[in-house]
Structures are given as structure tokens and as C-alpha cells.
């Protein structure tokens, strides 16, 4: 019986954990000039296979993955169809199509090429040195590279009309040998606000310059060999502008291109080359000027800033021109008398050679000149050709990308935009122009609405705006700031699992601010331990949060600290909230009082905790009324100031005060334990079962509840001697799912069977043991239980299933080579006696007697022989067997007879009487009359043995009654009511259980 309530454990059990669901594998496709790309997202790379299983059929196998969603794959002239079954995806492609596959982080990329667009390398793409975040890397066929043009200080350069001589063979560097056919890598710079950018390559160094501080995420590099690239170095240029630069590794081609603009930019290195179109410069000259008077003009729209950048090595000041779209760039380097340009793939970079060089912008484009004009060649002397990179998709996230020391990612102070009082008007203004905007301008307004909503604790509204933005610009999903914003919106909306997925993106790891949000999300997922590990111990950034967010998140984060045993950290967060207590919502103040009480309890100030929690029992907020009620009940039970009945009444009232999370599970857990302590087992276990289903799967509280239920259930049935057999059977039938697997479960079932036999519920006991024999046991333990089962069947007058059980036992003993001959003989004898009894009960008397004749005479054999003959009316045989039994007793008539001896003498007299052997009856009367008269069987003995001439009808009725009641073998069968049987104690049967089987 359960007699203790582990209050400390119950208090600790308030801290729970949960596990997160594993996402499915999604498949998408994209059509390119030479190929169609299939990307498997979320597929772990270990063990995947891509193979052509038939002409026109490519099979992708993803072992160990979850469900596969291929609904986003579109058919085209290469991909005819796709089907997903289990962990296999089958692509129907145009026959004869070449394909290749490779890994990018946790993505699998499969390229299927059009005719003439064969892959540049084999399908076994080189593996990256380290796992790289998912970035689909397109594969373009190599195109003949155009010879690099030579620059001649202000003079035009032309390509020769004759083929250039082949370049001499140069020994490859170590990295070139290690990285043949270098695959493309993608560098992404993104933000949730449009910003200008310039990207250029100078002396083997790649530079990326942003013109606004809003682009707070540094460039992210992704690709199959991202580890080869060094991290970006950061240089602040003032006025919000920032430069990032990185030395391009030796052996990596310097072919660079860019795409995107506004919110998201991509730079690809290296890439296949073809004829490209940069913004062509034009030379403008003042009238009459032959040498000077020139101006270089690039008709480049969308110029955002002209930024001075002092080269860290040469010390030269470069004029960096940032633009809002990747189509605006000056291309390869050129050299003039007064200035030179750097190879720019986005924007332009002008390096002055004179002090009075003027670099200006207008709505029409970029102008470079001097007060007296530039010294330029005329247009007719210029014939240059520039190259740009082909277009390919990319994903910006890279685990190996340099991240700097940035911590903050949200600018809530700016996003508040006047707070809740101005929210409606701000939304109206922004929405009023949405329908007239397109492209980046529309997306930026949607993101502004989302930021404003998040800053004002409007998570659902923010998700709505973000969903529209993502539908119109799907590439936002690759934008780290967008993921952070969406993760925050999910968290504020109560969608904690997708929030955790977004916030856990590897590219967001440098932003310490997000640790608050991850801790908040994990707390709602009831993973309190991990939440405390994630939460920063510095609350300075949290203290700057807008009041709506601080009020929303502060209580949960303070509770995380308290559950982690970090009282000082919890106090700091609570103090932040208490600053504006008078303006807080009622449920927030109730939460603060509850947390103050928990602080007192942890400080062993029980009276202080009681004073804070007791008023909450009447609070209108249901959550903290329930939490305080549970905590106060545990506290008072521990102090002995409340009895069990009152505690049950209080908890019964709280059961429906709060529904649907860990708190409801905790209340029911406590209530169920109290009912068990009151011996109200069915009600207690029923409530505990409800509590287990309320807890999150794999949460700590869920595991604790199920563990307690199993232990209590096992203790009741196996150990509690006060539990009645009927109660034990009822508990088993109602909660049999609590029966443990393996040997422990076998002990529970066999102990329950013993209780049922004790209550003479033989049929139910036999049913339990039959299930064990059929499904749970093996080896000698199965044989032992089968013998006992046969005995119980015979006690229940059910001989046919008894014989089946005996067959099972006999088969095991006969086949077990580990048994000695003596043991086998003993087991065979025991099974034979039980079988003979069963045969006699189905009127196969002769078989039963023949079976007994094969055994040496002993009291058990003689008793069974006598019983069989008795039941068959073979009185001579019965008398003979009973005589042998009396001889076995070595009766001394001069000493008092035992009841057993008196019964044997009486039964022998009956058998002799019914066989008509009056002589032996008379002899027995002479021999045993005096001794029998001293027993309770004396009168019956006198009636049966007196001479026939004085016998009456009542004498015959007496004899018939004795015949009907006699069971000479019952003493042997009764041994099977106990937990043991007649098996030799020298045998130690080994149980081989089947854990998968269950009762």
C-alpha cells in the first residue's frame, strides 16, 4: 500500500522538459538554362543514395528520414514526374539525361541536365571538409574563358585578331591539386530593410561594402568547401557604412558575379563565364578640348551613396559607389590618366590619382571628372569587352562564415513607432499605399508592419504580414534577419516549435539577443533545463525592451531562472517588471506575486511564501490561481497544517481551473497520489492516467508520472498483502498497460494469479497464466508455469486444457539438454501424475491406470490409483490401493489416529463394503474399531462395518454420501494453490522472457 507522499519530489516535478518534433524532408525544384535542380531540404546526408534504376528513372533513397513532401516539384521538359513512397523518391526524367548529385550542409542537390548540358564533373561531387549550411549550388557547364585584357594607363585596349598563344603549363598549387573543378560558393548579405551595396575584387581580395547600419548581419558564405575560405574582416566606414573584406584563397578562380538588390544580395565565386553586359561608360568632352575637358559617365540608376574607403594596405582612398540593384556595376578594372576603376561586380569603385578628382552622382548616373576635365581617349579608340558571371541560385547560410562580434539583431526602440497608441494610425498609413507599390518597396512596407507588430506584442498580425511578404518574395526564407523576425513572431503567437526552428538557424548563433527568445520558447515547450542553459545571464539588453514585450517575456524568463535555481538572475528580471507595477496588466501582477512566493519558498521562508500565495487563491486570473493553489497545497501538506481530505478537496477544485498544459498534469498528478494514499486505487490510477496524457510527450513531468504509476501498480499487486484478490484483479484489468515488460511483468502477473487462486477464482488465474505460457515465457520457466497451470486447471475441474499445458511442459523438459537424468525423471513423474488425473476426469480410466503402472509405487501414486479406481467404481482395485496407502502410513492402533489416517481406514472400509468382501470388512472392524471410536469418524466406521443383517437404508445412503465426497488425490492438487509446486528445489529454472509481448 502506498503510504508516503514525496513532497520534495512533487515540488521539483514542476520543472518539465519536452522534445521537439522532427521536421519532414521537403523537395523543391528549379529550372535553369542547362539543367533542372532538385533540392532535398532537411535530409541528413548520412547514407543517402542517388542512382539510375532504369532508363528515364532516377531513384533517391533517404534512409532514416521522416516523411517526404515532394509536392513542390514541378514538371518541365526534363522532369516528367515525381513520386515519394516512404524514404524513396522516384524521378521520371527524359531518357538519356545526364545527372549529378552532391551535398550542401544538410541538403542533397540533384541536377538533371538537358541535352548538351552535361555536368562538368562526375556525380560524386567532392565532400566538404566541414558540414556547411544548406545552400543549393547550381552547376553550369564550363564555358571557354575570355582572355584577361591588359590595361595601358588611359589608353584603349583591343583584343588581337589572331588567336593568343597558349599559356605555358604552370605547376598547380597544393590547394589547386586538392580542389579540382572548384564548385560555386555563395556569399549573401541580407536585411529586412533595403540597403545599398558595392562588391569588388582588388588584388585577390573580395570587398563588400554596405551603406546602412540596418544590414547588421555580416556576409554569409555557403558552399561545399566553405572551410577553405577565411572569415571576413570588418571595417566601419562611418555614417552607418561598413566594409567586409576577405582574401580569396589561392587556387580559387576570381570569376565573380552578383545578383539581387534591396533586401538581399548574392555574390557567387567562382562561376562559369559568358558574354556579360556591365553599365557601359561614355566619354563626354567639352567643345574644342582635344586633350582634357573629358568626363566619364556611367548611366547607372539607383546610386545610394558614395563612400570613402581608405585601403588598409596601400593607404589609397577609394570612392566606393553603392547601388540598390545588382544590375548596376562597372565591371572589369580600367586605368586612366587621372583615376582607375577596380573590378566591381556591384556598383563602382574609383581610385583617384589626383587630388581634385570629382566623383558625383545624379538621377541619371555616375560622373567622374576634374575642374579642367579628364585626359581621356576618344570613344573611337576604345574597344573593350567585359565579362560578367552567369546567374545561379544560392542560399546565404554558412556555418563557417565569419560572424564578427555582433549581438543585437532587433531594433525595437525604432520599430515601436510611437507604441500602442500610434499603432493603428501607423498601420493605416502603411497599408494605404501597399496596393500602389511593387517589388522591394512593397516587401519593405510589409516587413515594417511586421516589425512594428512584433515590437508591440502583436505576434499574430506580424505573422500575417510576413506570410504575405514571403509569398511574394520566397527568397526571404534565406534572409537571416527575416528568420529572426519570423521566429520572434511565432513565439509571441504561441507557435513555439516553429519559433524554435527559426531561431535555431546556425547563421543566427552570433546574435546573443536571440538567446532570450530561445529561452522563452523552450520554457513554453516545458524544456526548462535547456531554457536556463540558453538564457543569457546579462539582462542589460532585455531591460531596453518595450514594455509590451518585457511584460510578455519577463515572467517566463524569471521563472526559467527560478527553476534553474538562479535566484539573483530571477530577482533582476522581476525588478525590471516591478518598476512599472502600477501600469501592468492584472495577470502580470498575479504572476509577479506567484514568483515572489516561489522566491520565498526557495529561501526557506515558508511563512512568507504562504502570505503571498494565499491571496492568489481568490484571484481572478485562473492560471495563477491554479498555480498558487497547487504550490500552497504541497507546502501545507509538507508542514502538516492540512490533512489529506482537505488537500483532495482543494485539488479537485483546481482540476478544471486551468486546462491544457503542464500545470493541469501536475495538479492531477498530485491528486492521483493522494487518492492512492487513501486506498482509492481505481480513482487514483484513473486520474494519474489522465495526468500522463496531459503532459507533453517525452517531458520530464510525463516521464515522472508514468514512472510513479508503474512503481505504485507493481508495489500494490506484488507487495501489498492487505490488497484483496478482487481489488488486485480489478486494478489489473483496468490498468493492465502498467504491467512492465520482461521478468518484472511476469512477477506481477504470477503474483496476481496467486491472489486469484487464494480467492478460488481459478478460471481467471488460469487465464493469466495461460497468456504467460503462450506469449511471455520461454525455457524452463515456461515449463514450470505450464505445470502449475495444469494443476490449477485440474483444481477447476477443467482437464482438457490441463493436458495441453502438460504437453507444453513435457516438450520443454524432454528437449532441455541441461537437465540431469534425475531431474528429467522427477519432472516426468510429476507430469505423469497430473496427466493420469486429467485422463481419469475425461473417462479414460484404463489409460490413466496404465500410465500409473509405469511409476514406482509411492504414496502419491497409490493415492491417485485409489482415486481413479474409486471414481470408476472399481472397488477391488480401490481397496487394494487404499490398503497400500494405509501401509505407507505405518499405523499403530495403540496410538491415537490422525484425521488423515482415520479417513483412509474409513475409505478402505467403504471400498471393501462395496466390493462385497464382508470378511475383510469384519477384520477391519475388529482391528480398528477401538481406535476409530476415538476419532470423529467412529460413528461412520461403525455404520459401514456392522454386519449386513443389521444394515438399513440409511446405511446405504451414508455410504453413497461418502463415495461422492471422497477425493483421494486432492492433497496433491492443493499444492498447486501455493506459489510453488512440487518441482525440486535443486532446479533453478531460467526465465527467458519476450519483452515485446505484453499482458
How does this model look, in words?
Among the domains are: 25-113, Sandwich (Immunoglobulin-like); 141-146 and 179-406, no CATH class; 857-968, no CATH class. It contains 34 helices and 29 strands. The strands form 7 sheets. A 5-stranded mixed beta sheet has the order 5-1-2-9-8, with no helix packed on it. Helix 18 runs antiparallel to helix 19. The protein is elongated and about 165 Å long. It comes from Micavibrio aeruginosavorus. Residues 141-153 have a biased composition (Basic and acidic residues). This is Tetratricopeptide repeat family protein.
Helix content range: 40-55%
Content-based structural category: alpha+beta
User: How would you describe the shape?
Assistant: elongated
The average pLDDT score comes to 79
Whole-angstrom Rg: 46 Å
Tally of DSSP β-strands: 29
The largest sheet has its strands arranged as 5-1-2-9-8
Tell me the distance between the termini: 23 Å
State the major sheet: 5 strands, mixed
Number of helices: 34
* Share in β-strands: 15-25%
Poorly predicted sequence stretches spanning 5 or more consecutive residues: 1-23, 118-181, 380-406, 980-999
Keywords: Signal
Signal peptide: 1-21
Protein name: Tetratricopeptide repeat family protein
Region (Disordered): 118-169
